[in-house]
Structure of Ferrous iron transport protein B:
Amino acid sequence: MSRAPRTIALVGNPNAGKSALFNALTGARQKIANYPGVTVERKAGRMTFASGEPAELVDLPGSYSFEPSSPDEAVTRDVVMGRQEGQRRPDALIVVVDANNLEQHLVFAQEVIALGMPTVVALNMLDLAARDGLVLDPKALEESLGVPVIETVAVRRKGLTELTAEVAKVTEQGAHEPTLPTHVDMVERRVSARAMAKGAIISETKQRRLHRGLDKVLLNPWVGPVILFALLFIVFQAVFAWATPFADALEAVVGLVSDAVVANFPAGLLRDAVTEGLLAGVGSVVVFLPQIIILFFFILVMEATGYMARAAYLMDRLMAFVGLSGRSFIPLLSSFACAIPGIMATRSITDPKDRLTTILIAPLMTCSARLPVYAVIIAAFIPARSVGPGIGLQGLVLLALYVAGIVGAMLVAFVLRRSVTEGGVSGFIMELPRYQVPRVRDVAIGLWQRGYIFLRRAGTIIFSVTIILWLLLSFPQAEPGENQVDASIAGQLANGLAVVVEPIGFNRDMALSLIPAMAAREVAVSSLATTYAVASDDEDETAEALGPRLVADWTLPMALSFLAWFVFAPQCLSTIAVARRETNGWKWPIVMLTYLFVLAYIAAGATFWIATAAGL
Ligand SMILES: Nc1nc2c(ncn2[C@@H]2O[C@H](COP(=O)(O)OP(=O)(O)OP(=O)(O)O)[C@@H](O)[C@H]2O)c(=O)[nH]1
Ligand SMILES: [Mg+2]
């Protein structure tokens, strides 16, 4: 035979089993190199048809679509189209689909088949389908796709002979020039993928049906978001309703300890440092441990059950609307714990502009360090009233603050993607994990870790910053009759800043809390508590909770303005430092700082003036 060996390429979604099939078909006869000009691996090997004719088999990186959103996907498209340097155009394609995720995998499979090249579908992972009680009809699938479908189990080498025979057959029909359709409607393709998947199912077990039924409801484009929002609503109601008795108890304990210290130790600077700095300051943050635990209980359970990935799937449409891909969801979700791991998680986003946008908006996701700030102000100023059956006003306001951050982030992303980080939107389809009953042990460990992180922050950074602030508040000592805060270094410094934030309704003490809060957001709470503790001349008042003091000193518009500030303002230096590291320079962190300050200033100012005008 004189003609050059045929080239066959393996394509499909990530994790379909392409590489497993490639290994099974080529054995040890593989060569791994790089495609010229890109860092994507080129994996090729030799396979043999039943006739004895050899062919070159090329394993391609997993793709969701031919509209590439990563270098990997670009290589896949270019190889298939015959545009990739150092690679002959394939004579035939094998599309590998995971039988257990047909609905998702058929989206890209349709796109591949639409090219019009000789194509065979490998319906892979049938062993797992059998295990889960799913029986498929390859003939039905063949009919709806219009190309041969072969059942395979790549890791058990099942179906390989049939697959190669079919590939040989379609290759003989001769290659066509592949043509990319000019217009692809993603929604349409998803709909037909769903119909095809449904038509291919002969039978499935109760459990699988239950899970699919759940997906039908939870992922429904109309019902799904409503359920997601309702769940979040319950979470934030619970953060207040469940935590209050625990938080009150903790607060009482801190008060008792403070009283005991006052009763048993002589008056003096050291005693003041303990009562005003450690107990009033750090204690005021620690009492929010129950809230943190409850919030993370829900987050962990949503992750463990498999619901979180569904939430990401739902959010994908919204994210695409503002110009982000679903790949940003996990980094943004982690930012609800803390923006630092969130920003680091953006490394998984391959498109540089997508990634930059995600980094820039990550601080707008409400990190858990802001929860104590929100909680203390809400508990003090928002009445614990119900506005409907089982609907507490406090939880509602808390939810609104989180939503304000998310909406702000989406608006900023929308603007950025049309200006500085302009670029195309990449399609993204998530692999959805199976539903599972969460394991108590895993959730318990997760909660323990979260609680530990929170208390460690209280014991280290919050403690040190609060003590430094206490020192700055306590010196120089006031003359008799003069207020200690007015006389102190910190008070003097804050007077300068107060001029700047006065137009947005902040008083001197609020201004003062903004500076140490740059170290950690919770410090806003401890610094307010310490400031008021230092300011009071009455020893008994030192042990008093922060809430009543705030109410005595602030108006409602001031409190709301303070909340609005914390939704948007950049308060934590570590976030800026991580942004610098991840973007390799100061330019983007400075952009981030600037836009966040401007947003915070405008939001706080607008809140203050609207609330004042409304007579609140
Ligand atoms: N049980 C079972 N596992 C399989 C089968 N085929 C592949 N796998 C496993 O599924 C996982 C993913 O397979 P890969 O071959 O790496 O998938 P891929 O399509 O090359 O994925 P990307 O390279 O990321 O696009 C691996 O752990 C395989 O061992 C199969 O038929 N049955
Ligand atoms: Mg692979």
The longest strand covers residues 41-48. The mean pLDDT is 87.
